[in-house]
Each structure stands twice: as structure tokens, then as C-alpha cells.
Amino acid sequence: LAEESADSAYHSHGSSLEEEAAERMDDEEQERLLSYWQSVGRGHQVDVPRDMAEPIQQLTRNNNPQERQTIPFTLIQRKEKLGDLLYEKRHYGKAKWACIKMKEKQYEQSICLGFMKLMRYICEQNSSGLYLGITVPIVTIVHTNEAQSAMTQAVTVAYYLPEVLQDQPPHPFDSDIIIEEWPATIVYSRSFRGITNEDSIMREINLLAAILESPELCLRDTFIIAGYTNPAAANRHNEIWFLQRP
């Protein structure tokens, strides 16, 4: 009996040590990720608060390509020239999105702060108390003047709700996040890489406008930046979307 109780004590002590070690590694990972995001944030003049540590860790752990759900669309046309893809014409169906309006001094600040708020919503800060899952791309609606020569400060950062949540989206705890239903839309999409700021976005808008056969069919002052990698990534995969007039 003495041997059994000693054995049991050893195993329970051993398991508690393992748990402590796992917790310590967990905390270290959280600190490392938070520190990385804070350094990236400083580059965009954005303060990443300590309460983002858990959502950042949760999102990082679940950010495997096989875990992500791509927003469904129907490909209508691919326009190529000498083997290079110029743009795609796509149809996106009616769907619900979690949206937040931002109006920081710089575009990068708006998307970073908006994305952090959406991360909290995705990572259990919602009425279901569950991790909702990543969908890609995260999109940002931007506006320009009629001449397409400058962007306005107001943007909307939006997260497509996974298919299983489309009928009954969990309610956000953050009152700034609004669930909106967007109508079915025809989109002209062109891919580009790198950072997204006022200059790069205006360049991509002008580039796609020059390539399209009939740019007048699209809205002239409203565009979407679709991001397939998080704002902390250095070499991002992005798309510029022109929206066909209803």
C-alpha cells in the first residue's frame, strides 16, 4: 500500500509538473507573439494592448491553411495577356459579414485596429463563447473621390462569417461591430503583393482601371482591398476588387 501511494503521489506530482511546464511554455509563446505584434504595430503607429495576447495566440494556432475557409465565389471569366493573369471576374453570393468602421489618420492604422477588434470577436468574445474560425480574405472597403485621385479616411474592415454561422451569427460583445448582410455582387479582382497603404492602393486602383475594358460598369468611388494574410505579415497577398454597379 505504501508503495502504491508513493507511486500515485509520484505520478500526480509528475503530471502537475508537466502541466506547470506546459503552462509556462504557453505563457512564453503568448509573450513572444504579443511582443512580435507590438513591434509590428509600432511600425504602423498602432499600440497593441496586452489584452490582445490571447486572441493573437488563438488565431496563430488556428491559422493553418487547411483550417481557413475561403469565401465562396463563382468564377465568370479570367482575363490573361501573354500568360499573365490580368484580372478575374467573379460572382459572390449574398452573405453576412461582421463589420467595423474605422477612421484613423492612416489606412494602416485603421486596418490594424479594425482587425484587432474583429480578432477579439472571432476569439470567443461573442454570444456563443466559441472560437468562430478564420475565413479569408478579410476585406476592407475604401472610398476615393470621384476622380479616383485620393482616398478618404473612413474605411470598413469586414469578416465573412463561416457557412455554419451564416443563418444565426453570434452577437459581438463589442458594440462597434455590426453584422451586415451584403447583397450578391459581381467583382473584378486583381492580385498584388506587399504592404497596403494609401499610395499602393491608389496605384492598384489606377492599374486595374486602365486594364478593364469597361471600367464605367463599376462603382467609381468604392473599392475593396482583400487581404489573405494578416496585417502583421511583411509580404502580404492582397487583391483589389472593383464592384460592378447593381
Short description:
Residues 17-28 have a biased composition (Acidic residues). This protein is of the alpha+beta class.
Describe this structure in words.
Residues 1-28 are annotated as: Disordered. Residues 17-28 have a biased composition (Acidic residues). One of its GO terms (molecular function) is heme binding. It is a single chain. The chain is of the alpha+beta class. The protein has 2 domains: 12-61; 68-244, Regulatory factor, effector binding domain (Multidrug-efflux Transporter 1 Regulator Bmrr, Chain A, Alpha-Beta Barrel), CATH 3.20.80. It is 33% helix and 30% strand. The protein contains 4 helices and 11 strands. It has helices spanning 2-43, 53-61, 107-122, 198-211, and strands spanning 69-70, 74-81, 84-92, 95-102, 135-136, 138-143, 155-160, 178-182, 185-193, 218-227, 237-244. Strands 2-3-9-11-10-6-7-4-8 form a 9-stranded antiparallel sheet, covered by helices on one side. Helix 1 crosses helix 2. The mean pLDDT is 85.
Question: What profile does the largest beta sheet have?
Answer: 9 strands, antiparallel
Strand order across the largest sheet: 2-3-9-11-10-6-7-4-8
List the domain count as a whole number: 2
Q: Given the C-alpha coordinates, what overall shape results?
A: globular
Task: Record the SSE blueprint.
Layout: H1 2-43, H2 53-61, E1 69-70, E2 74-81, E3 84-92, E4 95-102, H3 107-122, E5 135-136, E6 138-143, E7 155-160, E8 178-182, E9 185-193, H4 198-211, E10 218-227, E11 237-244
Parallel strand pairs: 1-5
Antiparallel strand pairs: 2-3, 3-9, 4-7, 4-8, 6-7, 6-10, 9-11, 10-11
